Amino acid sequence: MYFGKKNASGFFAEGFGMLTSIDGKKIFDLEGSLSQGSAVSDFAIGLGFGSKWITKSGFIFEVNVGYGKLLFNADKTDHDIVAKFGFHLGYRF
Predict the structure, then answer these.
(1) Which position among 18, 25, 51, 87 has the lowest Cβ density within 10 Å, counted as fewest Cβ atoms?
(2) Residues 6+ away with beta carbon under 8 Å from 5
(3) Does residue 39 lie within any of the structural domains?
(4) Does residue 2 belong to any structural domain of this protein?
């Protein structure tokens, strides 16, 4: 949802979904023995915000940040949150 006066430009808020894949952990005990965890896939939902600028010549600049929570397999990992950061440069045709 854009809050600026121009079409698809200005400050915005967003909802997002993210498919994640987390590699298994390698854990060493005091004697140096290795135990390997299994890989975990999960889905997260979250909220984000950012800002987008479009120049008259068609160049686009955008920055955004978001924060979300794992939904299904968070108990199988050492964290239950996801974060996303974006910096985009582009050209509008």
Answers:
(1) 87
(2) none
(3) yes
(4) no
